[in-house]
Design brief:
Layout (H helix, E strand, L loop, with lengths): L7 E4 L8 E3 L2 E5 L2 E5 L5 E6 L10 E6 L2 E2 L3 E4 L6 E2 L1 E5 L7 E5 L11
Antiparallel strand pairs: 1-2, 1-8, 3-4, 4-7, 5-6, 8-9, 10-11
């Protein structure tokens, strides 16, 4: 998969185009994969108090999912949006890692 939980992304289109954030959750939707990023694609929801629970009533803002095709991974090494490639390390287990297409560096440490 190109993006994972904890990756920094930049939004490519929509009302939040150009904003950066860290992925909180990756989820499946009817249209494919989507990511939830705090502070991006915020929606207001009306919420009632829940009979004695500590939740607050009123209008709350929640981050809504953004389609994975509308985000691009930001490389931690070159700090620029990049496409993701895959490469295998030269160890015994043939570990597969994600690679930045722009600078060629690994995006995560080998497992």
């Amino acid at each position: 998969m190109a993006v994972r939980k904890g990756d920094t992304i930049v939004v490519l289109g929509g009302k939040d185009r150009g904003k950066r954030g860290k992925i909180e959750r990756v989820q499946k939707t009817r249209r494919g994969l989507a990511v939830v990023v705090p502070g991006i694609n915020m929606a207001k929801r009306h919420q009632k108090s829940q009979g004695g629970r500590a939740q607050t009533a009123g209008i709350i803002e929640l981050p809504m999912p953004v389609q994975i095709s509308n985000v691009m991974l930001v490389c931690p090494n070159c700090d620029k949006p990049t496409r993701v490639g895959h490469a295998r390390l030269d160890d015994q287990h043939k570990t597969r890692v994600r690679v930045c297409k722009r600078c060629g560096e690994q995006l995560e440490a080998g497992k």
